[in-house]
Amino acid sequence: MPQNRITDDGQSDRPRRELPLSLVIHQLSLKIDAQGRALVARHSDLTLPQWRVIRVIGLEAPDGSTALRKLMGFDKSQFSKTVNQLRARGLLTVSAHPEDGRQLQLSLTEAGRAVLDRLGPVLDARNDLFLQALAPEELKVIRSALSKLGRAAEITDFSKGDDE
Amino acid sequence: MPQNRITDDGQSDRPRRELPLSLVIHQLSLKIDAQGRALVARHSDLTLPQWRVIRVIGLEAPDGSTALRKLMGFDKSQFSKTVNQLRARGLLTVSAHPEDGRQLQLSLTEAGRAVLDRLGPVLDARNDLFLQALAPEELKVIRSALSKLGRAAEITDFSKGDDE
DNA sequence: CGAATAAGGTTGACTTGTCCACCAAATCGG
DNA sequence: CCGATTTGGTGGACAAGTCAACCTTATTCG
Q1: Rounded to an integer, what is the distance from CA A127 to the centroid of its chain?
Q2: Cβ of B30 < 7 Å from strand D?
Q3: Measured CA to C1', what is the nucleotide nearest B73?
Q4: Least CB-CB distance to B21: which of A127, A151, A153?
Q5: What's the ipTM?
């Protein structure tokens, strides 16, 4: 067995430096998205971003496109394209916002609600598997930890010794 | 103030259903990557994937391209392209693997090490900010939690009632 | 009140990541 | 030993996300 063998699960005998948390989270996100893509593809012909828009509209009725987009953390451009894809497929209706001419009012069509009803339980079950995979002390702090990391990731002014 | 106002930071007065963990992690990953991209761009003309390859080679000397690729969690195709970009820029040398004709042996050039020396501290400082943002009980379990989620995301057989 | 600024959506171009076919090398099993 | 299977890298096509310019609408400020 050669020295310095690296296994995928990090369970190698010799301690090695940990990967940066940013890379770990990136890898995790790619795995979760790949799994989500496979599940959504198995049950529909939606893309993952399209499913996400439907899913979050179903979680709560947004009072405008801006609130929905910001809640979902989508880029303006990507949100626009995904919403238009869903409108073109007949899963979403788009109308003018009653108070703000810049915004859109979005709602699911019956076909959109049907997709939500069909896929919702599947993806909820996967989410439950994620939660069940965690120990109680992990489950207790995971969301607050991710939230704090998110805020730390929004810092753009690294004035601490940066040669800007 | 209209009812059902949604704020970005989730600190709204009324409780609302939480976003699925998968979407939260996806959003977090995008924010972290955007910040990383900005930092890397400020200090070099590398892309984030290119920086990541250099960074992980610097963390430990891999015994072949396969071990490095798997450690980093890169797609085969993306890894190949990024390695070739780095070779073309003179930051990486690529040679034949001594034992396995399928694999490559990768090492940083002097220019590659110089980039690593210049950017390493910047990105390490950011990683430290992430760790410092977390409370002790969050820091204690974050890696094990992410690791468990990663394993749960590798499940491909959802035979529990799926209409396959 | 009007100019300046900011916010929201669209579109095209680009970056990053995925998928797949192909080929070569390694491994496995009869 | 040899055929079958698996693994690793390449390259093209495509999906997902980002960036920036532009236009419209709303807000801010003097």
Answers
A1: 12
A2: yes
A3: C17
A4: A127
A5: 0.88
